[in-house]
Amino acid sequence: MTIPFIDLKAQYKLVDEAVKKGIDGVLEHGAYVMGPEIGALESHLASFSDVKHGVGCGSGTDALIMALMALGIGPGDAVFTTPFTFMATAEAIALLGATPVFVDIDPITFNIDPDDLRKKIGEIKDKRKDLKPKGVISVDLFGQPADYDRIEPLAHNNGLFLIVDAAQSFGATYQGKPVCSFGDVACTSFFPAKPLGCYGDGGMVFAQNDELHKLLVSVRVHGMGEDKYENVRLGINGRLDSMQAAVLLAKFEIFPDEVIKRQQVAARYGALLNDVDGLTTPSVPEGNTSVWAQYSVLATDSDHREELMGKLKENNIPCVIYYPKALHLQKAFANLGHVMGDFPVCENISSRIFSLPMYPYLKAEDQETIASVLKG
Ligand SMILES: *Cc1c(COP(=O)(O)O)cnc(C)c1O
């Protein structure tokens, strides 16, 4: 038996009946788009997240685009974010014609560094009269919350909105509060490999504010007004399918238990790997929880990483680098004019990081095998 990187089949065995029943329900009532499952899921997940509104949508990427559209972002606007994230975070900003302004990361959490955020906001205000600072998108990388005690006031005291990109962190908490309760808007993804995944694409936007909620609902369906065929602004087709919502309703039943299991798996890794020479295991600041979308470790340098990943591959243990090339160095963002050296912490981390198999049903014996291969 080889160890999978993420075992969705083990999970399916636990929910197959509920999933099939949910999908059958959609087939029976026939409201394939915006069926009753959407509202049910929105209210379940909003209440789980301790936030007033949830708006189901087509993907995590759509969630970010809808949030930025609802907040009125466009050309000439600067939105601060991290270069150490999945493409979608900065792509959404650029797709709306706004300018992503990258901020270096914290070397422990790999999330946006509040000190560098303060510095970059100041620089844009002083030196870039062509840009209007409008907002911040923080990312809870690998499932661990960003530093909201510092980021939220920094954003708001500078007149900026905060969008929480919780695509990897749905189910995590910051100082006891669910991550999607932070920010003006929080966005998550239900891509199958995310902590709460469906069987296709899906996402959700969360907001506390009633006006923002109305805007998000409008933007989700082509900027509709009170009437479906009245369009009062531009929007997108950003709807979530009823079938994916039915899948999520079934999977949500076991999600709280899976979050606990993920934390147990991560704790076991921590204990097993703490004496691997030169390996740094992830740590989560006191008072916060991660949902461990990835279990990512650091080698001492890129040669050491190659050596460790080589050992895993020889033993058929899958491992992946998230992310080998930071966004400021991607061709798609060449127009921003960044060079190697612009974000030293991010570049250093991306040359040393790699992720190990991680899922709630990962067995202790498999983790022991992984640890012994890394030590060997
Ligand atoms: C996955 C992901 C997204 C995009 O979600 P999709 O559902 O794949 O569109 C956005 N941001 C981050 C940090 C992600 O990991």
Task: Chart the SSEs and their pairings.
Layout (H helix, E strand, L loop, with lengths): L7 H22 L6 H13 L4 E5 L2 H11 L6 E5 L5 H9 L3 E4 L11 H14 L4 E8 L8 H10 L3 E5 L7 E2 L2 E2 L6 E5 L13 E5 L2 H11 L21 H11 L2 H19 L21 E4 L3 H13 L29 H9 E4 L7 H12 L1
Parallel strand pairs: 2-3, 2-4, 4-5, 5-8
Antiparallel strand pairs: 1-9, 6-7, 8-9, 10-11
Helix pairs in contact: 1-8, 2-8, 3-4, 3-7, 9-12
> Can you list the ligands bound to this structure?
pyridoxal-5'-phosphate
CATH superfamily of the largest domain: Type I PLP-dependent aspartate aminotransferase-like (Major domain)
What is the terminal separation in angstroms?
20 Å
Find the CATH topology of the largest domain: Aspartate Aminotransferase, domain 2
Low-confidence stretches: none
Which CATH architecture of the largest domain?
3-Layer(aba) Sandwich
Radius of gyration: 21 Å
Structural class: alpha/beta
**How many domains?**
2
| CATH class descriptor name of the largest domain | Alpha Beta
Spatial strand arrangement across the major sheet: 1-9-8-5-4-2-3
Beta-strand percentage range: 5-15%
Return the average pLDDT rounded to an integer: 97
